Uma2 family endonuclease (Zarconia navalis LEGE 11467), 201 residues
Amino acid sequence: MPYTPTKLLTVDEFIDRYSDNPRYELADGELIDMEPTGPHEAVGGKLAVRIGMAILDARLPWFIPRTCLIQPFADAATARRPDVIVLDETVLGSEPLWQREPVITLGRSIKLVVEVVSTNWETDYARKVEEYALLGIPEYWIVDFRGLGGIAFIGKPKQPTFTVCQLDGDEYRQKQYRSGEAVASPLFPALQLQLDDVLPR
């Protein structure tokens, strides 16, 4: 049987067909099924609550949209859908697509992205680290609640890990936290958070 390649999508086609479906994102024109599970969603939901409370406590003009896509590069057919994203409402007027679609193209609109690691952990630890840094997103959290990441990323023995990436120039400096350790976020200095607080029961 001859191999039939999958038809690649443009960002516009992806937005038209899948913008409301949180299961998918787009990478180089290829539809990616993120395969969310119940425990994955529990971790993402708990993180969103904690971050939302920190935003309110600090009286910041930021918010967490219910659904949002990031189009990191105009010349690439890629649209990311972070598990949690924090936007700065004061600069959204500069976003070219925001009034029609919840799509972010400018890094300055984004304060934080959070990815909860699933079976496609390579993307969270490698490619998205580069994409989000190039966009200029100040902080990126990688929450690997099952310890799925490679040893090069989370160490040995593999265990649940919370990685805070802070932008330094055009690259992220990374700090890892494990069970029982207080997570330090430069973006939210008053936030009291441990990996254990967001683990599924």
In short: The chain has four helices and ten strands. Residues 38-58 form the longest helix (21 residues). The two ends are 46 Å apart (CA to CA).
